[in-house]
Structures are given as structure tokens and as C-alpha cells.
Specification:
With 114 residues, the protein is of the alpha+beta class. The protein has one domain: Alpha-Beta Plaits (2-Layer Sandwich). The protein is 14% helix and 14% strand. It is built from two helices and six strands; from the N terminus they run E-E-E-E-E-H-E-H. The strands form three sheets. Strands 1-6 form a two-stranded antiparallel ribbon. A two-stranded antiparallel sheet has the order 2-5. A hairpin with a 2-residue loop joins strand 3 and strand 4. The longest helix is centred in the C-terminal third of the chain and has 11 residues. Bound molecules: iron/sulfur cluster (2 copies). One iron/sulfur cluster (SF4) binds next to helix 1.
């Protein structure tokens, strides 16, 4: 399931640069997806574009936004259940020029008991 940011966000911005997929945007900022520009998903708080979030699968063993967030407001979205393979495929699609190694506990939260 993609991660999402709750109303507890204090707009510190710490998560944005940490996302390996560029999935996090400031409130009110437009985002790009599939060559098109889209309106912000939140007008006033940082937000995550679910189509760009892989729960950090392919990159890190824990969600970087959640690990850094001082407000503990980056949480899994239960309305968007996704498998590790779905998330890994998304990572490949988001980074078409990159060779990903097989997943392990350093590159998938599914491998470390979380
Ligand atoms: S879980 Fe990972 S990929 Fe998803 S928004 Fe957070 S840092 Fe980005
Ligand atoms: S790190 Fe947490 S509090 Fe800071 S902008 Fe991101 S979601 Fe909001």
C-alpha cells in the first residue's frame, strides 16, 4: 500500500528530499506524472503521490519518509493494498534506466519483518 501523510504533518519538509522516487510534494505544489501536470493533492500540507510511491521497495528496507518524520504522520494507506511485486514493478517503471538487484532486507520492507 502506498504511504500517505496525515493531517498531523507540521510542514517541516524533511521527507521530500529523502524520497527515492520523488513522490513527495509540498502542499499546493503541482506534480508531474506520465508527462502531464496535475493539481496538488493537498492545498496546505505535504502530500505523497501514490502512483510514485513504492513504500521504498527497490531502494530501502524502511520507508524513508516515515523514518525521518518528526510527527510520525507518514503511514501506510490501508485503502491501497499492494504487493511487494507490484511495488517493485512500479520502482522499475519509475526508473527505466536503472538495473535493480534482487530484493533483500536492505531494499524491501517486506523482507525485514515490517
Ligand atoms: S514510502 Fe518511500 S517511496 Fe513512498 S513516499 Fe515515502 S519515501 Fe517516498
Ligand atoms: S517529514 Fe513529516 S511533518 Fe515533515 S513535511 Fe514530511 S510528513 Fe510533514
Amino acid at each position: 500500500m502506498a504511504t500517505f501523510i496525515t493531517e498531523e504533518c507540521i510542514n517541516c519538509g524533511a521527507c521530500e528530499a529523502a524520497c527515492p522516487n520523488g513522490a513527495i510534494f509540498a502542499g499546493g505544489a503541482k506534480y508531474e506524472l506520465d508527462g502531464r501536470t496535475h493539481a496538488a493533492l493537498s492545498p496546505h500540507l505535504y502530500y505523497i503521490v501514490p502512483e510514485k510511491c513504492t513504500e521504498c521497495v527497490g531502494h530501502f528496507g524502511v520507508e524513508q519518509c516515515a523514518a525521518l518524520c518528526p510527527a510520525d504522520c507518514c503511514i501506510p494507506d490501508p485503502k491501497r493494498p499492494e504487493t511487494e511485486e507490484q511495488l517493485f514493478e512500479r520502482a522499475r517503471q519509475l526508473h527505466p534506466g536503472r538495473e535493480f538487484a534482487s530484493l533483500n532486507l536492505m531494499t524491501s520492507r517486506f523482507r525485514n519483518g515490517k
